[in-house]
Write a structure and sequence with these properties.
The complex is a heterodimer of chains A (444) and B (280). Chain A contains ten helices and 17 strands. Chain A is α/β, with parallel strands linked by helices and 444 residues long. In chain A, the strands form three sheets. In chain A, strands 9-10-11-13-12-14-15-16-17 form a nine-stranded mixed beta sheet, sandwiched between helices. A five-stranded mixed beta sheet of chain A has the order 2-8-7-4-5, with no helix packed on it. Chain A is globular, with a radius of gyration of 25 Å. Chain B has one domain: monomeric porin ompg (Porin, Beta Barrel), CATH 2.40.160. Helix content of chain B is 6%, strand content 59%. In chain B, strands 1-3-4-6-7-8-9-10-11-12-13-15 form a twelve-stranded antiparallel barrel. The longest helix of chain B is centred in the first third of the chain and has 16 residues. The radius of gyration of chain B is 20 Å and the shape is globular. Classes of the chains: A alpha/beta (444), B mainly beta (280). At the A-B interface, α1 and α10 of A face α1 of B.
Chain lengths: 444, 280
């Protein structure tokens, strides 16, 4: 039995070797430098607390020097639009290369998102760590600034789209195809008779597949998505994006400003319709193996807004996932962004335009944007929804994303907050999204 | 960000789409089912004594078991699964010149719940499973049949599984299970087993996997019994080699063979199994 013992020992070692690898992975993410490093860890993994719950953080301090460090640790809390809420400080000392964990408990806060900055002050070293926590974000409300003729405007727009004959062209790209995937370049006419293009990738291993329909971020050219074996992937480049730029090229600096003073001609009127034309394309090409009853639309940032609007206006979309949706709740986005010390997109771009065109007031801005705010489309979404947001996101403030989410008409909706992410979500989110999608489409 | 996301999705597919032999510790997934019919063959002629020495069986004697098992799993929630296992046995105990004894019928039903305690990025999963063991046959005149111990029992299993660490391989999976089983009888037995599986896809649709099982059954009744379903005090180490083929996302086939190279008070057994895995 001695041999057996060795074998059992070997297998147990194998298990033990696997577990620390996971832990090591998590540690790498937080590696920092400095005399004293501070890592605030919210009690709740997602940084979300209940309204009657104390806000808890473990403040992990580590002395990276061989000398004793004495200093102050302080925190200050503001609302997400910059109003001071509270602050406090405390002294600490750390032995050489020593570590300490301080527990911080803050009184419960009303519904909303809060910025909490932690500062470490030493005689010759200072550091600030930014964090954001949320309190019952599913209770965040916002006013819908929906023009009276909003529905009529979009009904009319869709009718105009239907008048455009799509003239689909599907060209197999053997140079990009592999044994496992057939790649097609697709082309169609959209709103205003503008030609748009996209990439369709069909796995060869099967006859019928659900569709992963991806719409682009802000002036991001999408390429064929070769990494999905369980879905046909369709990546659409709306006007002015990727391989659709030969027809219309506006560029990053002006894209969201193109005809902004005229709601009827604003760039996004056509862009939103391009996304619907993409669904038309999928529905009319079932012969390529597309399961037209399983269309899933996804996008991040501007793509998140486009995905939501596609699902809102077209019930042929069965599942929606969106990350960090741009332009959501645009009235509050303006309010929150006005508290930033340094402006970021999109209001950095809108403000610049305003400086050059002083007659273009915020009222005029909203006279256009109230027709395009994704939030106004949200009540029309009835399919299952998954949304991911980064709590440190300034492009898409969490408050605005959650206001959008809370207006979504579907009851079958979930959200994921990633505490230490800015304008993106993380690995865990996408792994969860994969599980979530398989659940919704019953994919083995 | 786009490239990162594609990589992540690709990684997820490797982890989630690789068919795994039987249920293992991977959550089945909400509202989804897994059905695994299997056919097993086991034979022994010789046995290990209490000191791991091989004792030759009398000429013409052997024990052979043919069994078919139906495993069904259903995902109640993302973390909670219902699992059931129903075996049907056909066993031949060849006594040489004294003839042979044939027993057939349903064996011990195992049913319970599996709960995923924690996952690490949906690539590694730690789960616990609690099951009840119910004999689907009756004792004859208070004596055991050859289909099982004839006692109710319970089983608790801790499972850790996931994709292989990158340090070892860029694809493939592992599954480990530590199981404690207790039969409610004065003689027990109490059983502890540890199983480790490593699977590696050699092509897109084909894989090889290795199972290593260490099994220890403790009882005050030390008598040798060639029938593994009714023996009480024994131990063995069993390596098994499997090949798997994926026909589609919903159907896979695994064929495996094993040999028992070491044991205590048990048969020098060998055999094989054929499993169909249907994901519905």
């Amino acid at each position: 039995m001695r041999t057996k013992s060795y074998l059992v020992f070997f297998t147990i070692v194998f298990i033990m070797a696997s577990a620390p690898k996971v832990w090591a992975f998590q540690q790498e993410e937080t590696a920092e430098t400095g005399n004293v490093t501070l890592k605030p860890v919210p009690d709740n993994k997602e940084g979300i607390f209940a309204q009657r719950e104390k806000i808890g953080y473990a403040l992990r301090l580590h002395n990276n020097t061989g000398e004793v460090q004495k200093g102050t640790i302080a925190y200050s809390i503001t609302t997400d639009d910059g109003k001071k809420v509270e602050d406090d400080s405390s002294k600490f000392s750390l032995k050489s290369y020593g570590s300490k964990s301080l527990i911080l408990k803050i009184k419960p806060k009303p519904v909303g998102f809060y910025h909490i900055n932690f500062r470490v002050n030493l005689p010759d070293y200072d550091d600030t760590v930014r964090n954001v926590f949320g309190v019952d974000p599913q209770k965040i409300t916002s006013q819908l600034h929906k023009p009276a003729d909003f529905d009529a405007f979009w009904t009319r727009t869709r009718e105009d789209l239907e008048k455009v004959v799509p003239q689909y062209r599907v060209l197999e790209r053997k140079d990009l195809s592999t044994d496992e995937k057939r790649v097609y370049s697709v082309e169609m006419h959209s709103y205003g008779d503008i030609v748009i293009r996209g990439w369709l990738v069909v796995p060869t291993d099967g006859k019928r597949f659900p569709v992963h329909y991806r719409v682009p971020g802000y002036v991001v050219g999408l390429k064929p998505n070769m990494d999905n074996d369980d879905f046909i992937t369709f990546d659409l480049n709306v006007r002015g994006n990727g391989n659709s730029t030969d027809v219309m090229e506006i560029g990053t600096d002006n894209y969201c400003l193109f005809n902004i003073e005229n709601k009827d001609k604003y760039i996004y009127r056509g862009v939103y319709m391009d996304c619907l034309r993409g669904v038309d394309f999928l529905m009319s090409h079932a012969s390529l193996g597309i399961d037209i009853n399983k269309i899933f639309v996804e996008g991040g940032s501007q793509g998140g807004a486009l995905a939501l609007i596609t699902a809102a206006l077209d019930k042929r979309v069965k599942v929606l996932t969106l990350q960090v949706p741009l332009y959501a709740d645009i009235h509050n986005d303006l309010l929150v962004s006005s508290s930033y010390q340094t402006q970021v997109f999109p209001f950095k771009t809108f403000r610049k335009y305003q400086e050059k065109h002083p007659a273009f007031t915020w009222d005029k801005f909203f006279a256009t944007w109230d027709y395009y705010d994704p939030q106004n489309f949200a009540p029309m979404v009835q399919c299952p929804v998954l949304m991911g947001i980064g709590l440190l996101d300034q492009f898409c403030p969490p408050r605005c994303s959650m206001a959008l989410f809370n207006h979504i008409g579907s009851k079958n909706k979930e959200f994921v907050c990633v505490p230490n992410s800015t304008h993106e979500v993380n690995f865990d989110y996408f792994m969860f999204q994969n599980v979530w999608l398989r659940e919704k489409f019953r994919i083995p | 960000m786009q490239k990162t996301r594609l990589f992540i999705i690709f990684l997820a597919l490797i982890v989630l789409a690789t068919p795994v032999k039987t249920f293992a510790g991977f959550p089945i997934g909400k509202y989804r089912d897994i059905v695994v019919p299997s056919f097993n063959y086991y034979r022994q002629t010789d046995r290990f004594d209490g000191n791991d020495k091989v004792i030759k069986g009398p000429p013409g004697t052997s024990f052979t078991s043919y069994s078919s098992t139906l495993f069904i799993g259903y995902g109640i929630t993302r973390r909670l699964d219902l699992i059931m296992n129903v075996p049907f046995l056909y066993q031949v105990n060849n006594l040489g010149q004294n003839g042979k004894i044939v027993d057939q019928g349903p064996g011990d039903f195992v049913g319970g719940l599996s709960y995923n305690l924690v996952n690490w990025g949906y690539t590694k999963f730690l789960s616990v499973q609690a099951s009840a063991i119910v004999p689907l046959y009756s004792k004859i005149n208070g004596e055991n049949t050859a289909l099982g111990l004839g006692d109710y029992g319970t089983e608790v299993k801790l499972m850790f599984c996931g994709s292989l660490p990158k340090l070892i391989a860029d694809k493939g999976y592992f599954n480990t299970e530590l199981t404690y089983r207790r039969y409610f009888d004065t003689q027990g037995p109490d059983q502890v087993s540890f199983m480790a599986t490593v699977g590696y896809p050699v092509t897109k649709h084909n894989q090889v996997s290795v199972d290593l099982t260490f099994y220890r059954s403790y009882s005050s009744n030390k008598a040798f019994d060639p029938n593994i379903f009714t023996a009480r005090d024994y131990a063995f180490f069993k390596p098994q080699l499997n090949v798997g083929h994926q026909f589609s996302r919903r159907a896979s086939l695994f064929i495996g063979g094993y040999y028992v190279p070491f044991g205590l008070n048990t048969g020098v057994g060998y055999g094989g199994s054929v499993l169909f895995v249907f994901k519905l």
